[in-house]
Specification:
With about 450 residues, the protein is of the alpha/beta class. About 55% of the residues lie in helices and about 10% in strands. The chain folds into three domains: about 5-240, Rossmann fold (3-Layer(aba) Sandwich), CATH 3.40.50; about 250-340; about 340-450, no CATH class. The chain has helices at about 5-15, 25-45, 50-60, 75-85, 105-110, 115, 145-155, 185-195, 205-220, 230-240, 250-270, 280-300, 315, 320-340, 345-360, 380-385, 390-400, 410-430, 430-450, and strands at about 65-70, 90, 95, 135-140, 160, 165-170, 175-180, 195-200, 230. The strands form three sheets. Strands 3-4-7-1-8 form a five-stranded parallel beta sheet. A two-stranded parallel ribbon has the order 2-9. A two-stranded antiparallel ribbon has the order 5-6. Helix 15 (about 345-360) runs parallel beside helix 17 (about 390-400), helix 15 runs parallel beside helix 19 (about 430-450) and helix 18 (about 410-430) packs antiparallel against helix 19. The longest helix has 21 residues, at about 25-45. About 30% of the residues are buried.
């Protein structure tokens, strides 16, 4: 039987037509991580004063997302992108400088003449961005809106969508570069596809300038190849793991992430009158999970920890904007302290939420007799939940002894006990946000009872 990791690898082989090892242990994954970390150091030696942009770029690549570099002309954006892509062995890199005259066939391949004679507009994608592993699009916002519109599906869904031609792309990530932003509806749509954004500020520090001169004397402004490149096959397997459930994220970390984002939105709106409508989309919010997993694996861990929340900066803020980084850092540190008194209660709530999810999913099963295993021994719960230690111990005991129920009376008893359990949790909660979670849980329970799933 295939392991979960082997299934991931086989799926990846279908997606990318690459050779995948029969087995990949965490040790083998960590070997790829070592390659990545060594190459991050290498890029930082070749491109001066870009450490945060480089780390952000590798987060984008590891999560299958895109990075946008914004700066004045002459800030080595092209060199940075090329140097990053030079780190990959056997990678197919597509590069194009866009102008207002760039047409879709310049990106997706020339139209097939034979197909045109049949009235079909089909791109010959060989050598195009569609079959590349990575791409660098320079001066991306010089392109006309028609071209930008044609890029949307490729950037978001990794598919070429052109009438009858619907083709899955091998494209992993794009690094885009621009000297300016222009305000159009299409520009906003394209910007939304570049989850990772960097602003490269001007730095005339004399020591930094000396370092730049020294690197130029060595390489004359060209990207160089490291001695030990990242194996693309291994990297793509690692990327698949980052975007799977193989790397665990505790529910408490996800809760903190959502609280941090809410506070960041509120403070950004309050501190900047020009950002009155600022928000973070749900799509961006959920994709932060991939960033957290990438942070964990780069630290040689298979589970996300609280310290990984510091990396949210690379996705939520514009790297290079110090005021945004400081604002987010303060919110993260405050959140850690703020929920300290309620942490154990919150963890108990999240376990109970898992039970409720099981009830909802198992009762949807056609075989109602196997609907769920939950709580037979909830008698005497009130006396054992008088303090937080008792609450936690009893809850672990309950969720550790899940038994099938088969008749309505037991379901009724279970529903009443869980509601009583929630009432006791509310009495012990210290923070209003904890109460907000409990109220949401109670609404879920009441819905299940209304559907006769707990009644």
């Amino acid at each position: 039987m295939e392991t979960g990791l082997e299934l991931i690898e086989n799926d990846l082989a279908l997606d990318y037509d690459i050779d995948v090892k029969e087995e990949s242990s965490s040790t083998e994954l960590f070997e790829c991580v070592k390659q990545i970390k060594e190459n991050i150091k290498y890029v930082n030696r070749q491109v001066v004063d870009r450490e945060e942009m480089v780390r952000q770029a590798f987060y984008a690549l590891l999560t299958g997302e895109h990075q946008l570099l914004l700066s004045r002309t002459g800030m080595a954006k092209s060199l940075l992108a090329r140097q990053i892509f030079c780190c990959f062995k056997n990678a197919n890199v597509f590069e194009k400088q866009l102008t207002k005259d760039t047409m879709p066939d310049n990106l997706f391949g020339a139209y097939d003449i034979d197909e045109m004679k049949k009235g079909r507009m089909i791109h010959n994608v060989e050598g195009s961005i569609v079959l590349a592993d990575f791409a660098f699009l320079d001066e991306i916002f010089d392109a006309n809106d028609m071209l930008l519109r044609s890029l949307l599906s490729l950037l978001n869904e990794k598919r070429l969508v052109n009438g009858q031609q619907q083709l899955k792309s091998t494209l992993n990530s794009v690094i885009g570069a621009t000297n300016y932003l222009r305000a159009t509806e299409m520009l906003e749509a394209v910007l939304d596809r570049f989850l990772y954004k960097s602003y490269i500020p001007e730095n005339k520090n004399l020591y930094t300038q000396l370092a730049i001169d020294r690197i130029y004397q060595q390489n004359y402004g060209t990207a160089t190849s490291p001695e030990h490149k990242i194996d693309l096959n291994d990297f793509l397997i690692l990327r698949k793991v980052v975007k799977s459930q193989t790397l665990k994220i505790p529910e408490y970390i996800i809760f903190l992430k959502n609280y941090i984002l809410r506070r960041y939105i509120e403070e950004t709106r309050a501190q900047d009158p020009n950002q009155a409508n600022y928000t973070i989309s749900d799509r961006t919010s959920v994709k932060i999970q991939d960033l957290l997993r990438a942070s964990a694996i780069l630290d040689f861990r298979m589970e996300v920890e609280e310290k990984d929340l510091d990396q949210i900066y690379y996705l939520v803020s514009i790297v290079g904007k110090k005021e945004e980084k400081d604002r987010l850092s303060n919110i993260i540190e405050t959140a850690r302290r703020y929920f300290g008194p309620d942490r154990k209660i919150l963890e108990d709530i999240f376990q109970l939420m898992q039970v409720i999810r099981e009830i909802r999913s198992m009762n949807g099963n056609k075989n109602i007799n196997k609907s769920l295993e939950v709580v037979k021994t909830m008698e005497g719960i009130e006396s054992t939940l008088k303090d937080k230690r008792g609450l936690r111990a009893k809850f672990q005991h309950i969720t550790g002894k899940i038994i099938p129920f088969s008749n309505k009376s037991e379901k009724e008893k279970m529903g009443e006990s869980i509601m009583h359990y929630c009432d006791l949790l509310k009495q012990m909660a210290d923070k209003k946000e904890t109460l907000e979670i409990i109220d949401g849980l109670i609404n879920d329970i009441e819905f299940l009872r209304s559907q006769a799933l707990l009644n």
